[in-house]
Design a protein that fits this description.
globular; 8-stranded antiparallel sheet; PH-domain like; single chain; 37 strands; glycosyltransferase; alpha/beta; 955 residues; 22% strand; EryCIII-like_C; sterol 3-beta-glucosyltransferase activity
Length: 955
């Protein structure tokens, strides 16, 4: 859908849409299901960039697409709102896709339509001029996506009817009335001209200054338009194909089936011959510095590259992907590409040269060959091997020459001619013009009107309408300071949007929250005592529940009661699921409900539950089952008290896991997809927004001069500086822990800033306050320090693996060493170590910590990877994305809470229009298995809940 401006003059309707060409900007990405040749839908990760749609098995494998769909060959995009499906039509084949929800499908269709227009036009804008005298009918009609619309039908000189649908983001009634007046004036004139044999003027389309007859060819605009001749009765939408596509189509039609089969046999025979003969002999002629024009055309077509992308050389070699894959390497002015030549393999590489972080020659895996390692800016490692040393060296030499070119300028699609400086100026001016246009439009749009799309990142939620009135939003959470701080950042973002926000949590955070101008709501509980029981017993262990039964019955009752009081008078609840009460309060108040958390809490086969991380990767069956176990253990422990509270306080009937149906709750995960890539089996309403960073969390904090001097002196002496702190963790013997840390720091030769945090909180009052700890000169002790201020000034961090501290270290782009104690800390330790940006220490000893400190401050590869990770995280705007996700899924949340209330009351719910009833496969599989094996409890409304059976899963 093209967004632009409509003008009404005395004699014409004029429409202007401006769309700059965003080179190397991901316009949209995410998971979609694609229909295979066998009629089955398989889920892949899709990315829309440079007017090209590509998809992958693994979103981390972003340079190895399974297929590249060039949208310049696409005719149109069609959607089916009933099943959240849409398809892309091309002359060669049609692609059918299915999204998780209607909103997601609308986003994809909108961006694809825009990209198709851009891909098929050389200019950066479209102008449509419709003579009022050519109009045959004008009608008002409402659509589900916009407030109102105007439908215009015209007749062309060749006596074909055409239809335009203009959807407006502001009231169109005034325009409709004025247009009707002008049209009525021309009706009699049109009749007179028709009787005298005169023809009305055809609507005109102008693209980048070139005027064309709208009806003479394909119409590159996605304002809905249908065309048919006067004699035709079919209402099927038609659109003629561009000339470039027509020539391709006619060529294809002229090829006989026998010729196609013969060509396939020849290609297959050639590939087999290549494989069976001595590869080194073939390599002797496997470097071509002057590719033929036909090779260049095939290269550009296969990898969907612009016409000006010059192919410089072709190499034959091996790409190591589990096993060595033989194929062709291509080097062009802006890309390193690879295409497999192995029968049955469709492996591709499309790697921008600007994305190569570094490369080096290395020892090969195949005897007699010569290796090359490439590290991309996304930390993906690639290994190439060549049959001759001089061929490998020629490859490297060519890369050297291309990398030495100034890559600060953006890659251009180069559809026009001119110097690089001129092209850069054009792009810069285009973006400035685009931003000014959108700023002007935003001033005149009615409040609450949905803006279809702005030009921006993939992280931007498209079509998320702002609310017509502000809301009162309550964020409900319990736990440590790191659990509360992200909500302060989110609250400030929501307040900028005009909403009123309350944070309901423990009383000791009241002054801190109110210092940021946020309303505070009291929730009971002692966070330090909660940390102690978790550290001593682990999460959801036998000891945890034993102590919980004896000591935390009263704590949970108080938590439920105070949470209910703290959420009164609010319009929306955003809750950490650890708070346990929000989903029930939202049901009682009949208000939308979101969940938000710092760790994965939604069932998936991609990662284990953060509270059940094994020593070794146990793959998908364990990962999924771990969520089922934790959810049931969690609910089993609190169900009696929760259901009693529901009856006595909330005046609701008892519930169970199936009635709550937590899998359909919209979720906001405030971590980065660069650290935890989005699993393929999460639904559209499960959003990874990015971290919610709070800069300057301590209002009025100022760094002590002694700390600044400590940092400066060590920098002058070229001594690496690390931060060591265990935040909110409470330990039995803080002195022993401190002794281990001090000895490891001295042994490693680094300087350390030591923050004890809560480590001795429960020891206060039990020790002699006059006993003063002494530290060597290489250690600077302090109570606490803002991470955002300190971490950008040091070289590495050592901490407990809390989500907030982990995020701060990753954002700073420095290696991270994690010694976890309980809960999700083991999960973050595994993520950091698996990415090669830090270490996970399960048992803290002097030797192990010293070894990790030395490596973290000297390992160049780890330092580079950490720096790249920091760059990507700093580019994210987690708070903005979270706000947009709330707008997008608010209606989903509202309908879901109604369905939850009906299920709890035993009332049949009306069919949802959002589509989640058909998509929560995990929930349906579990329910079906319970019925098959005859486990009771699925219909129970009592105070307990039977643990669900584990579904049989496989890879």
């Amino acid at each position: 859908m093209l967004q632009g401006v409509l003008y009404l003059t005395e004699e014409h309707i004029c429409f202007h849409a401006y769309f700059p060409r965003e080179q190397d900007v991901v316009l949209k990405d995410g998971f979609l299901s694609k229909r295979s040749t066998y009629g089955l839908y398989e889920k892949y990760f899709f990315s829309l960039q440079n007017d090209v749609l590509v998809y992958y098995y693994d979103q981390l494998d972003q340079y190895c697409p399974l297929e590249i769909i060039d949208l310049k060959y696409a005719v149109k995009v069609e959607k089916d709102t009933n099943k959240n499906k849409f398809k892309i039509l091309t002359p060669k084949r049609n692609y059918l896709f299915q999204a998780d929800s209607l909103a997601s499908m609308e986003e994809w269709v909108t961006q694809l339509q825009r990209s198709i227009v851009r891909a098929n036009n050389d200019g950066d804008h479209v102008k449509i001029v419709i003579p009022i005298e050519s109009i045959t009918n004008i009608d008002n009609q409402l659509t589900s996506s916009f407030q109102d619309a105007i439908q215009i039908k015209t007749i062309d000189q060749d006596e074909s009817f055409d239809e335009y649908l203009f959807a407006f983001v502001s009231d169109s009634q005034i325009l409709f009335e004025k247009l009707n007046d002008r049209w009525s004036h021309y009706k009699e004139l049109n009749l007179t001209r028709t009787q005298s044999g005169q023809r009305s003027t055809s609507p005109e389309l102008t693209i980048a200054g070139l005027s064309l007859n709208v009806f003479s060819g394909w119409k590159p605009f996605s304002i809905h338009k249908r065309s048919k001749s006067v004699d035709e009765t079919s209402t099927t939408s038609t659109r003629s194909v561009p000339k470039s596509i027509q020539s391709t189509s006619s060529t294809l039609d002229s090829v006989t089936e026998q010729e196609v089969q013969s060509s396939v046999r020849r290609k297959l025979s050639r590939r087999v011959n290549i494989l069976v003969q001595n590869p080194i002999k073939y390599m002797s002629s496997s470097f071509n510095e002057n590719p033929q024009e036909e090779t260049k055309e095939r290269f550009r077509e296969h990898f969907a590259l612009p016409e000006n992308e010059e192919l410089l050389a072709v190499f034959y070699g091996y790409y190591l992907r589990m096993i060595p894959l033989y194929g062709k390497f291509y080097i062009s002015g802006n890309y390193v590409c690879y295409k497999s030549r192995v029968p049955g393999q469709t492996t591709n590489i499309k790697l921008p040269i600007s994305a190569i972080y570094y490369y080096k020659k290395q020892h090969p895996t195949i005897l007699g060959y010569y290796g090359l390692e490439i590290l991309t800016r996304s930390q993906q490692e690639m290994f190439f091997e060549f049959g001759f040393k001089d061929i490998r060296d020629q490859f490297v030499k060519l890369l050297d020459s291309l990398k030495n070119v100034d890559k600060k300028q953006p890659l251009l699609d180069g559809t026009g001619s001119g110097s690089t400086d001129e092209s850069l100026t054009i792009v810069q001016n285009a973006f400035i013009k685009d931003q000014l246009l959108w700023k002007k439009q935003s001033e005149i749009y009615a409040p609450g009107s949905p803006i279809v799309s702005n030009y921006g990142d993939a992280g931007t939620i498209i079509g998320a309408p702002k609310l017509e009135k502000s809301m009162h939003i309550t964020c409900l959470t319990i736990g440590s300071r790191g659990d509360v701080q992200p909500y302060i950042a989110l609250a400030k973002g929501l307040m900028k949007e005009g909403h009123k926000v309350r944070i309901a949590t423990h009383g000791e955070y009241k002054d801190w929250i109110e210092s940021h101008g946020i309303e505070f709501g009291y929730v009971g509980g002692n966070p330090a005592e909660l940390m102690r029981i978790c550290v001593e017993n682990g999460m959801f262990t036998l000891g945890f529940f034993r102590e919980g039964v004896t000591n935390f019955r009263g704590w949970l009752d108080d938590l439920l009661k105070t949470s209910w009081d703290a959420c009164q008078g609010t319009d929306l609840i955003i809750e950490s699921p650890s708070a346990m009460s929000g989903i029930h309060i939202a049901e009682a108040l009949e208000i939308p409900y979101f969940r938000a958390f710092t760790m994965p809490w939604t069932r998936t086969r991609a990662y284990p539950h953060a509270f059940a991380v094994p020593y070794h990767d146990l793959k998908a069956p364990y990962n999924y089952s771990s969520y089922v176990l934790i959810e049931n253990a969690f609910w089993r422990g609190i169900a009696p008290q929760v259901n009693r509270w529901r009856k006595n306080t909330l005046k609701l009937r008892s519930t169970n896991m199936e009635k709550m149906d937590a899998g359909t709750v919209p979720f906001l995960y405030n971590f980065s997809s660069n650290i935890v890539p989005r699993p393929y089996d999460w639904s559209d309403w499960i959003c990874i927004t990015g971290y919610w960073f709070l800069d300057n969390p301590e209002v009025g904090w100022k760094a002590p001069q002694t700390l600044i001097d400590f940092l400066d002196n060590n920098r002058k002496n070229d001594i690496k500086i690390v931060y060591i702190g265990f935040g909110s963790i409470v330990v039995d013997d803080p002195k022993a822990l401190t002794k281990t840390i001090v000895e490891a720091v001295v042994k490693s030769g680094v300087a350390a800033i030591l923050s004890k945090g809560w480590s001795d909180r429960l020891q206060q009052g039990k020790v002699d306050n006059n006993e003063k700890e002494e530290y060597p000169p290489c250690i600077y002790p302090l109570k606490s320090v803002p991470h955002d201020w300190l971490f950008e000034r040091i070289d590495a961090v050592v901490h407990h693996g809390g989500a907030g501290t982990t995020a701060a270290g990753l954002r700073a782009g420095i290696p991270t060493i994690i010694k976890p104690f309980f809960g999700d800390q083991f999960f973050w330790g595994d993520r950091v170590e698996s990415m090669g940006i830090g270490f996970h220490i399960r048992k803290l000893t002097v030797e192990k910590l010293a070894e990790c400190l030395i490596k973290a401050t000297t390992d160049e590869l780890m330092i580079k990877k950490s720096s790249l990770t920091g760059e990507k995280i700093r580019k994210e705007d987690g708070v903005f994305n979270a706000v947009q996700a709330i707008y997008k899924h608010l209606e989903h949340a509202r309908q879901r809470i109604v369905s939850q209330r009906h299920r709890a009351a035993g009332i049949a719910s009306p069919t949802s229009t959002l589509g989640f009833d058909d998509l929560d496969i995990n929930f349906k599989v579990t329910a079906a298995l319970k019925k098959i094996v005859g486990i009771p409890g699925s219909e129970s409304s009592g105070e307990g809940e039977t643990i669900e059976s584990l579904p049989a899963t496989d890879n």
